[in-house]
Specification:
Helices cover 44% and strands 3% of the residues. By secondary structure, it is mainly alpha-helical. It is globular, with a radius of gyration of 25 Å. The protein has a two-stranded antiparallel sheet.
Length: 299
């Protein structure tokens, strides 16, 4: 009987010693599997990024949100809204390429440099240009799409036409015709009748852009950036591409009108709009509707 008890004790001790080692070995295997091997490069201007140094940077700065395997399930992900980007699906919001296509390396690089307003994704401009190029290369190792597909051809952004009052008015008409107000709201506050029902490709609720308090966009700050959003769409979100239904000159009209909805952001469009009795009355009514805090961060 004593021998049996001793045997059980020894067995328990052995299990206690072996189990952590087995768990550690499993975690080590998972960590090894978390670094996909295909060598990737990125090309941004004169920079060439490489995935090997990019891996070290990713597992230092990025995996906590985007996950060890790049599928957006990092340990911080449950507390992040909207959810972190899933690099395995290779679906990117901000692109200069047509909807449904892979972005240019420079698109990812620019997004990383810029960061995403109203999200937990910061600007990584503190990293060197080479660091960011290497990170882009490593991000591409997570999805087989970068092996089987090529990036789309960037869309052509025609020169912006001269700003006129007629352009703003045509843009206002187009805003109604395309039913942009259903999501973005009649005054562009992101409170349209469909706003509360919108979800992204991860089935997570997503808010339409709020022009009222917005001073920059997720995909840039310039009029050309806004133009590209119309014509490429934001893949993975309800924001479609209007390339098949909007002519280039109409898209510029819409850009000019939407700038007038940013009533706390002084722009040439807003100044021109306020110079008219109609525009001045609308902007004044919007400004007194709520009390502005002076903090240009939209909800």
């Amino acid at each position: 009987m004593l021998n049996i008890k001793i045997s059980k004790i020894c067995l328990n001790v052995a299990v206690a010693l072996i189990l952590p080692a087995a768990i550690y070995a499993q975690q080590a295997d998972q960590a090894a599997a978390a670094k996909p091997n295909p060598h990737m490069e990125s090309h941004i201007g004169d920079l060439t990024g490489h995935s090997e140094p990019g891996a070290d940077l990713y597992y230092r700065y990025c995996w906590g949100c985007h996950g060890a395997r790049g599928n957006g399930d990092g340990e911080n992900a449950p507390w992040v809204t909207p959810t972190p980007r899933n690099f395995v699906t290779a679906t990117f919001k901000c692109r200069s390429t047509p909807t449904g296509t892979l972005p240019l390396d420079s698109d990812i690089y620019n997004a990383m440099t810029r960061g995403f307003i109203t999200t937990n994704m910061p600007s990584w401009v503190a990293l060197t240009s080479q660091n960011r190029a290497d990170l882009v290369a490593f991000i591409k190792t997570f999805s087989a799409r970068w092996v089987t597909d090529k990036a789309g051809d960037p869309i052509t952004v025609p020169p912006e036409p001269a700003l006129t009052l007629d352009s703003i008015k045509r843009g206002k008409t187009l805003f109604q015709k395309l039913e942009c107000w259903k999501c973005h709201g009649p005054e562009g506050r992101g409170d349209g009748p469909s706003a509360s029902t919108l979800t992204d490709s991860n089935d997570q609720p997503i808010k339409p852009y709020n022009f009222y308090t917005g001073y920059r966009f997720k995909c840039g700050t310039t009029n050309s950036d806004l133009y590209k959003i119309f014509m490429t769409g934001l893949d993975g979100t309800p924001m479609p591409s209007f390339a098949d239904v909007v002519k280039p000159e109409e898209a510029w009209d819409l850009v000019h009108y939407l700038r007038t909805l940013q009533i706390w952001h002084k722009s040439a469009e807003l100044t021109l709009w306020e110079s008219t009795p109609e525009g001045a009355a609308i902007v004044k009514a919007e400004r007194v509707r709520d009390t502005y805090t002076g903090n240009p961060i939209h909800p």
